[in-house]
């Protein structure tokens, strides 16, 4: 249904016939760590995340998994050690 509380005019899965079914009956504004994310949208009531009704809960203890501005570092690939005896047996077997 379309939100009638905070994100007016936007489709919301939490909106029902009796109003917003989220904790407290409304969405919560973004936190400082949300700045720069593509999912942050400005509404008349302030800046809100269009993907998450409570951004502070997403950021508690870890990075938000929905954040588009977060660059995750890849772990360096460990060089795989090859046992020379097994390698020679594989080569002899034709694998």
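Q: What amino acid sequence fits the structure above?
A:
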């Amino acid at each position: 249904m379309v939100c009638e509380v905070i994100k007016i005019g936007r489709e919301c899965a939490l909106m029902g016939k009796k109003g917003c079914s989220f904790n407290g009956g409304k969405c919560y504004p973004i936190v400082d760590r949300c700045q720069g994310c593509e999912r942050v949208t400005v509404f008349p009531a302030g800046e809100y995340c269009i993907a998450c009704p409570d951004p502070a809960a997403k950021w508690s203890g870890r990075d938000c998994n929905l954040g588009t501005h977060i660059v995750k570092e890849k772990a360096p690939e460990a060089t795989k050690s090859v046992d020379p005896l097994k390698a020679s047996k594989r080569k002899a077997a034709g694998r």
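Q: And what stands out in the fold?
A: Residues 2 and 11 are 4 Å apart (CA to CA).
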